[in-house]
Amino acid sequence: MSDWLVLVLAMLAACAVVVVITLVRHKRAPDDEDPSETPDVIEYMTMWIGVVYAIVLGLAIAGVWEARSSAQDHVQAEAQALHEISERVRVYPPDVRDRIRDDVNAYVGHVVTTEWKAMKEHEQVTDRGAEQLAQLRHDVTDYQPKNDFEAQAYQPLLDQIAAADQARNARADSAGATMPPVVWWGLLSGAVVTIGMVFALQIRRTRRELVLAGLFSATIAFMLFLIWDFDAPYSRGITATAAPFLNLFPNIKG
Q1: Low-confidence ranges of the chain (pLDDT < 50)
Q2: What contacts 205, CB < 8 A, 6 or more positions away?
Q3: CB 60 within 8 A of CB 227
């Protein structure tokens, strides 16, 4: 099911629930009920609950968006480090240079095909990717520079290997969901309480009030959907992509 279809259904369901409850409540309300006599304290509580929940929603959206941006930065850093390795080994003998470049290409090819699919479906990286990166590290570190020119390139290559490894670990850590379950319970419970306070104001069955109540509930549903959509940086919605690998290694087919 498309994410956009899920969003539309969630917003329609939120509107429908509010309208149905309002109509049922209005039908069962006593004849002498006066909606204008809502106590001031209820209006005050409703206002503050709405303000607090809006702040919580804003922080949650900012958090998952920052996590998504960080996930893309990890991909960029890893791709750039591998590109630097592939370029810097040009000072090495042809056989060593080609072996290291083959290791880089094999690892990048595995990441953009097999590993990226595993991150989308299982929210984790693969053992094979770790093995290929380890093989790249061994081929770089096992070579003994033959002259000062090669020796000057040796330490920067080790630094780029460490940077790629660090970026890979960060990518693995951000592959799963960002929001813990307890936060989701708080967001969903807060939505129920916030929408429920609308009924505490004793809204009537006028078209204007029903439209406003429906739009209010649909807005909350939309905000919750955004948080859910951004929660998994590599598998849902506007995801982090493997574009940096494909841009820096155009010979690799994604």
Answers
A1: none
A2: 22, 23, 26
A3: yes
Count other Cβ atoms within 10 Å, centred on residue 18: 23
Cβ neighbors of 120 (< 8 A, separation 6 or more) are 234, 235, 239
The amino acid occupying position 184 is W
Span 124-156, pLDDT tens digits? 899 999 999 999 999 999 988 888 888 898 999
Residue 160 in tokens:
């780029």
- 81 vs 85: CA distance, rounded Å: 6
Assigned token pair, 58: 């804003």
Length of the chain: 254
